Amino acid sequence: MRITITGTPGTGKSTVAKLLAERLKLPLFELSRLVREEKLYSELDDERNALVVDPEKLKSYFENRNAFIAEGLVAHLIPADLLVILRASPETVRKRLAPRNYPPAKVEENVEAERFAVIATEALENPLAERVIHIDTTNRTPEQVAELIERAVKGEEIFEDVDWLETEGNSG
Description:
- By secondary structure, the protein is an alpha/beta fold.
- Helix content is 41%, strand content 22%.
- Strands 2-5-1-6-7 form a five-stranded parallel β-sheet, sandwiched between helices.
- Helix 1 crosses helix 7 and helix 4 packs antiparallel against helix 5 (104-115).
- The longest helix is centred in the first third of the chain and has 12 residues, at 13-24.
- The model has no long low-confidence stretch (mean pLDDT 94).
């Protein structure tokens, strides 16, 4: 089973992926580390102090792997059996990112990315997975989210409607 987990920073990808890897006894690839260590990038984005992932190098790395969990912002660029998109309310994202000592601009960029579903939209527009699930982690523990993913692995369809523009009272 090839499982990829994507979402905005602060939605719970790393924590949930670690739990899931233990439960399913699958190797876990933390993509931010992997991209750096295996040089799966094309350049450095100086403004964001981040590596720009080379999608072809990333796909090539996973080409002959059949059982894994890969988590990270770019996980949806990897062909998989199951793509998990994690979401959380923008306010929850802000709270979860606070302890990370990110610059305020980076926190707000991620809050807005979640509000406008940037990662989810990108993942859904061109899915490279046979199945896609969409989970709101706002009021769930990592264990509850991992349990939902395990149910999806067994075949259950899980696709929650998440729209922060509607639920946060923005009238346009």
